[in-house]
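Attaching the record inline, Q. Sequence:
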Amino acid sequence: MNRPVTALLAALESLLTAGIGLGALLVPLTALWAFQYELGVDWAVFYRAAADTWLLGHGVDVRFVLDPALATRLALAGAGNPFVVTVGALGLGLTTAVLAARTGARLRASEHPRLGALVAMATFAAVSALVVLTAGAESAQPSRWQGVLLPTAVFTVGLAGGWLLRRNRHGEEAFLLRVGLPVDWAVLLREGARAGLASLAVLLAVSAVAVAALLVLGYSTVISLYEALQGDVLGGAALTLGQLAVLPDLVIWAAAWLLGPGFALGAGSSVSPLGTAVGPLPGLPVLGALPAGDFGWGFLGLLLPVVGAFLVGALLRPRIDRALLLPAAAGELLVAAGIAALTGGLAMGLLASAASGAAGPGRLASVGPDPLLVGLLAGVEFGIGAALGLLSGRRRGGGEQSERAYRAEEARR
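Structure, as predicted:
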């Protein structure tokens, strides 16, 4: 495959990635425009709504100015004043990252991977610039510079993730050795980071199950809120699509709940294992699944992140022993656990930051978990669980000397 073909395919994949996310919003809104409003409203209104939502899903801040009549009906303090929404619909960003990872994996296997990656990022940046330049209106104005940089950053992170997943274990280790790390430290760094990310993945999986269970248990309340909105089929479908886009936010909030700090749904509110105390909320049906009251068993949720990290550590212990070609010492395992704590805590803090901020006017300017506190506690709980799991895991010594020789040869190249 020659260079022009690689560049063209990379550009097309970037366009497809952006088009899927934007199209998922624009298609139902266009159907709403055609069937509900019978083409009587300017289609650009619906396009800008889709573009603003797509940008929000990639972390872009959007400044809103509500119509006075709508602000009065909302009955929220400060609704009549301009406000900025910073909480994104992370489902859209996740879609971009996953599709970009597939692109990165394919480019890594091509004949000109670096050229393809540069073209892919440049194309996605151009699409992002086009979207943000055409999305602005008097009632909703996204940040211009964020609209170019942040979607491109999300795409680049996904691209890099797919690229790295194509690398084999020895390739990763050789890279760490080239930067001057000894063999043992390279192993501990790699496996510690893997333990931290795996612990976070277990926590998010448990949180996703918890959110699904709450939606099932609160089904009647959710349906009642849908009925209270008195919308038609197309309007309900558009609302459901919007709620699907914020499901990753809810999973991250549930993870913050399991870690202990919980999250806020407005200034002065709290949803944590100790209980739920919230004020007036928007009539978003998915919020009907929120747990209510005090939980005498809520502290048990704090054990889940530790137990998950413990299982991850126990499963990774034989892998570390094999890579080191002898049973790891306690000090080495504690170093790996410390790296797991740093990696998992930092990643969880970044996720909490993306899922928190301002969601509306007045008291809704404070929504989501505290990123610093959540990241700190995640690091502590992951570190404790990983350390216990690594220290108690089954030892497996021995190994082939050829593996160590292979790593050394790769490092010299």
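The two ends are 27 Å apart (CA to CA). Residues 3-167 form one domain.

More tomorrow.
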